[in-house]
Amino acid sequence: MAYAIKSMQIRSRAARELGYFSPFSLPPMAIVDHLIGRKPTIAKNTWKQYKNALRSHFQDLANESEESVAVEELEAAIAALDSEPSTGTLKHGTRTSATKQKHFKRTDLDKFVDYLGAHVGSHKFANALRTWLLAARLTGLRPSEWEYAGLTEIDGRTCLTVRNGKATNGRANGEFRTLDLSKATAADIAGLQDMMEMLEGYLREMTFQRLQECLMHYMKRATRACFERRKRYPTLYSLRHQFAADAKSSGCTQAEVAALLGQATDETAGRHYARAVSGESAVRVSPTETDTSRVRAKARVYAPRRAQSHRP
Known about the structure:
single chain, alpha+beta, hpI Integrase, Chain A, 4-stranded antiparallel sheet, 12 helices
């Protein structure tokens, strides 16, 4: 659905700037050429998103069409997209996403948690956000994945079961993943229990999606107040990036990192998440052998770094 919405935005902009009355009157190659022409103004990661969205849109149209000429035009447009590299795009974006910080270092997290603690009595969401951040730092969940996450016992071990986000079109490592908490401390488990209770408590007055939006907006204001002026600020998603970096630097294999993050291949974490050099503490959760075995190997093989003596 996100691809469908994005592809319509791309079509509509192309129609508007090329002088077409309707976005559906443009030939597929005209849309592709217009998007390619915009590359110098698009960040590398945004270009990939636009390219994939338009490709998905064209493929859907080709699958539904019964006209051979239309199918040939769509296939030619898909081939043109597939052959177009990201060369020529911006290294960093200039829009809102460019201000988002990928990592969330311990010093920043501690400072921000202290800031939230000082505002627990004065802001409705201060304690909820503090609870969320600490749980996310431990587990690396996407913000949206907390809606269907829960603690359970498996063969005598405490585990966190998670319904994988982005599970459509084979992008996730199955519908669910399991994080083994055997290495977690008693404080870690207590923090996750606080997270579950907090989420359940807010469900009496708002939906999960509304709570997530409220915490995102509050975090945006609170990080500006806490860290003052800087180029980039942490977001709810920054904890997932930091977790990925920690997992890489802890000595986990690429397949294990992918399993921890719920990704279908071992390539995604290496290309789109914070690097191992940003890692600073050992992860205290483990993937199951079943989840790890389902990860598809696509990345180049590398020798994982020896586990370092990190601060817990």
